[in-house]
Amino acid sequence: GNKPSGIKPNNGNGADYEKYSFTQTLSDVEMRIPLPEKNVKGKMIDVFIGPKSLKVTWKGRPGVPAIVDGE
């Protein structure tokens, strides 16, 4: 499947990774991404969710590493 080998599912039938975690049911997927700063508003970040990718970046901060960027 698409799961990396060696990762045990968490209590929500998902997985816990270094920069994010997710849980899932047959009808929903919930992702949790801890942000490195406090008091972050939605308008301060860009989120792209693709069929096999996830990218979370800071808006208006070129050169600052992405918060999450991967498959």
Structure in words:
The mean pLDDT is 87. The chain starts with 14 loop residues before the first strand and ends with a strand. The chain contains no helices and 6 strands. With 71 residues, it is an all-beta fold. The chain has strands spanning 15-16, 21-24, 29-32, 45-49, 54-58, 68-70.
Work out the strand percent.
Answer: 25-35%
Low-confidence stretches: none
Please report the number of helical segments: 0
Strand order within the widest beta sheet = 1-2-3
Helix content: under 10%
Cα distance spanning the termini? 13 Å
H-E string? EEEEEE
The tally of strands reads 6
Quick structural summary:
The two termini are 13 Å apart. The chain contains no helices and 6 strands.
Note the topology:
Elements: E1 15-16, E2 21-24, E3 29-32, E4 45-49, E5 54-58, E6 68-70
Antiparallel strand pairs: 1-2, 2-3, 4-5, 5-6
